[in-house]
Specification:
Elements (H helix, E strand, L loop, with lengths): L17 E2 L8 E5 L3 E5 L2 E6 L2 E5 L6 E5 L8 E10 L3 E10 L2 E9 L13 E4 L6 E4 L2 E2 L1 E2 L8 E2 L3 E2 L12
Parallel strand pairs: 1-15
Antiparallel strand pairs: 2-5, 3-4, 3-11, 5-6, 6-10, 7-8, 8-9, 9-10, 11-12, 13-14
Length: 169
């Protein structure tokens, strides 16, 4: 007999906050002018003030930075691919900085499906595989789990998908 699952209880957002439970499914893409800084190996490997946030129910935002915001040599093609039911086929990249190499720590959509075309020439990184990722000076926490790449800031409240027991959300 299967155990009955408790319903998810979204946290109440405070002033200036967003609930990830108000994000849509399928996801929405929106432009962002927040300053994003990514560090690896003690060096800044990306710095952007124009990016996209992908917002999906129960997930903290995933930021897609322009490839041009990465320092030369910071991205190298990696093996592997995955499929998103909304965006299409993702390719993976290693991120290099300060003598470190974070394997398959970033991903991109070379030919995203309709509705996600703006993600061409943009790259998302797993914040938990970097030294740090910042949004407007705030160091983000990584979304729990080993698959999702959401950026958790004080701006968003959950609970967030990714932790043990959340797969069925």
């Amino acid at each position: 007999m299967r155990a009955k699952r408790e319903p998810v209880r979204p946290e109440e957002p405070g002033p200036g906050q967003e609930s990830v439970w108000d994000y849509p499914r399928p996801p929405r893409v929106e432009p962002s002018t927040e300053r994003l800084v990514v560090r690896l190996g003690g060096e800044v490997v990306a710095d952007a003030t124009a990016s996209y946030r992908v917002l999906e129910t129960s997930h903290p935002p995933v930021y897609y930075l322009p490839r041009s915001s990465f320092v030369p040599g910071a991205l190298a093609q990696a093996d592997g691919a995955s499929m998103c039911e909304f965006k299409g086929r993702a390719g993976y990249l290693d991120v290099l900085g300060g003598g470190r190499r974070a394997s398959s720590a970033a991903w991109y959509y070379a030919t995203p499906w309709p509705g996600f075309e703006m993600l061409v020439d943009h790259v998302a990184v797993y914040p938990g595989r970097m030294d740090s990722c910042e949004v407007d000076g705030e160091v983000v926490a990584a979304q729990a789990g080993d698959f999702y790449g959401g950026w958790v800031t004080s701006r968003v409240v959950g609970p967030f998908k990714g932790a043990p027991g959340t797969l069925g959300w």
